[in-house]
Design brief:
This protein is 34% helix and 19% strand. The chain has eleven helices and 13 strands. Helix 6 packs across helix 10.
């Protein structure tokens, strides 16, 4: 990327290797790489990920007491340039910087909360998507700093406003290059098994998809955030949404993750749970499709982490001492 002070600056994303040539146990990129190898042995060439990155642009670090001072506008969802969208030019600069380093931006718009925005960029394979997420957060923060602004990715900066999510769009590609989640322009049985695997392990997954105390301030009713372990097409409080898409765009969208994640570990766990669902041909039980019967997502990090520590399928990740 280009830095106004230092000129062109290179960033390197890599695995951490021990002197003996082996990956270090704590290298999260290597952990995801191993999971992707297992995926390929099951007949899938790629896990495709499209992140929708939400953030606030503020004049200073936020507190509930200084919201009126640090917020730059009082816009709502989709508001255009002007007094209701004070940072459109800053976001354009961010998108040009993303494009400069090979991340293809798709959409930038005002979110529901004041001074809140979203930038979406083109999907990619899981490893590249993780790298791109870290780069995108860095670039957003750097460009904001150029304009004496503060980019905040906290899940819930203000208690009375919608928070920041990281909606995660997922599909699998077969070895023959087809979208495994699509069949006759509908969601395939493979996609449904994958969803069932995620929903079956949703509570322990939250330790990785929602890894901070602040994460659970976002996962409450009334703020368009997921609260229930279920899937649906239109209900924004469902953990998984099924977008209205067809053909190669057919996918599922996990709505509970936030930008505080370690993306490599989060996608490792999501992929593992989904593949278990595929291998076991897990069914979408009624409690996974009927909102009124669905279980609640964890209400705190402590609750999620206790479940994570007891998990049998994530035991190797527990030993990383993530808390």
């Amino acid at each position: 990327m280009y830095d106004s002070k230092f000129g062109n600056v290179a960033m390197l994303m890599c695995n951490i290797i021990n002197p003996n040539g082996k990956n270090t146990n704590g290298c999260c990129r290597s952990i995801l790489k191993r999971e992707l190898v297992k995926m390929k042995k099951l007949g899938y060439a790629a896990m495709n990920i499209g992140f929708e990155l939400e953030f606030f642009l503020l004049s200073d670090r936020p507190t509930d007491q200084n919201k009126d001072k640090v917020c730059l506008d009082h816009g709502d969802y989709g508001d255009m340039e002007g007094e209701k969208d004070a940072t459109a030019s800053v976001r354009r600069e961010i998108m040009f910087e993303l494009e400069r380093i090979g991340i293809t931006p798709l959409v930038s718009h005002h979110e529901r909360a004041v001074s809140a925005y979203e930038i979406s960029y083109k999907y990619s394979d899981a490893m590249r998507a993780c790298d791109n997420l870290l780069l995108a957060k860095h670039i957003i923060s750097e460009v904001a700093c150029r304009h004496n602004l503060y980019a905040d990715f906290q899940p819930k900066p203000f208690k009375d406003e919608n928070g920041n999510g990281l909606h995660t769009n997922i599909s699998l590609t077969t070895l023959s290059g087809k979208n495994a989640f699509e069949e006759n322009n509908k969601l395939s049985p493979i996609a449904k098994h994958f969803m069932a695997g995620i929903l079956s392990h949703a509570k322990e997954l939250c330790a990785l998809t929602n890894p901070t105390q602040n994460s659970y301030k976002r996962l409450v009713r009334g703020y368009e955030a997921p609260t229930k372990i279920c899937c649906g097409k239109y209900n924004r409080e469902a953990m998984i949404r099924i977008p209205k898409a067809s053909g190669e765009s057919t996918r599922i969208e996990m709505r509970n993750p936030d930008a505080c994640i370690n993306p490599y570990l989060a996608l490792t766990a999501i992929l593992r749970a989904g593949l278990i669902g595929i291998k076991n041909k897990a069914a979408l039980l009624r409690r996974f499709t009927d909102f009124s019967l669905a279980d609640d997502l964890p209400e705190s990090l402590d609750e999620a982490y206790q479940l994570f520590e007891k998990s049998t399928i994530f035991s190797d990740l527990v030993t990383l001492k993530l808390k």
